[in-house]
Amino acid sequence: MLDRLRPLLTVVAVLGAAALCASPAAAAPDPLPPAAADLVSFGISPAGPERPDDRPFLRVTAPPGAVVYEHAALLNQDDTAVQLQVYGGDVVMADGGGLAVRARDDASTDAGAWIAVPGASTVDVAPQTADAGFGYTVVPFTVSIPANAEPGDHVGALVASLESVGQGAENAPSIELEQRVAARVYIRVDGPLDPGLEVADVSATWHAGSLVGAGEVTVDYTLRNTGNVRLAVEPEVAVGGAFGLLRERVDGDRVDELLPGGEVRSSTTVPGVWPLVLETVTVDATAVAPAAGEDPGVGTVSGAVRVWAVPWLVLALLVLVALGLVVRRVRRVRRGATPTAGPEVEAPRLQAVR
Fold first, then answer.
1. pTM score above 0.90
2. Buried residues in 174-201 as b, exposed as e (16+ CB within 10 A)
């Protein structure tokens, strides 16, 4: 069983990468020596009452006011025993996309506050051995959903943390290092589901290529989850002239998980755009099923903006042609207004009358 779970440990380490952090107590002027920079290999995964199991995520569906009992396994791939601190934390949107777990000093206000580990918060985990494989300890925990919890999706995490102190270079302060891994806990509170997605704050900038060729348009936009259901989002950005003339499309960066109330600011560059004076930029965002979730049923939403893409060389040539025509016309008018000399008329002669 444990041999089959070795790949799972790798998966869990990847899932917890957003929670891994190093917190120096003071900046060291020189790099740490190799012994102080060594990290302990440990992880966390879903488990049954006695041993780790094959679930990729921890999932809970329950009504407000319910208390759910679950288990997680702390895994040790090091040759020495480790002592880990275990606690719950909110999972939030990280800057630039992705998910992160709140730092321990930041109070959890949502699903992280619902997760509790009974008994001591510090757990000893045996080392790995050649015969048994990696060491593990199963930790029971509870998810207590408040009676006034909002319906829909909430995401917390069970965090395993290891603190260690390393000595820096000579005359340098010691370094306090915290390694963290986390197992996500997806919680759906029973009640009406109202999925929603919005494309907002679309802006675009034209970058000319050569004087006579195509350029590119950089498009910035915000994807915002306006509902109470988790989403994954696949954006597509298009740029074209009037009536879709010479329209170019590219895929934007996929958002693997967009939490309710969360938003991600993205930027996509569309190459091969011909300057057609005024271009229409459209961002189409399609909501799809996230990890451990289902299709939210939102479909595709859009946002649009216009951007000037002026072909300056062509415009300059047109201006020169127009000036030439104006000068030619003025000259014609002037020639037509110049008076011409008529035939000379002899003055009449007067005769005296006798």
1. no
2. ebebbbbbbbbbbbbbeeeeebbbbbee
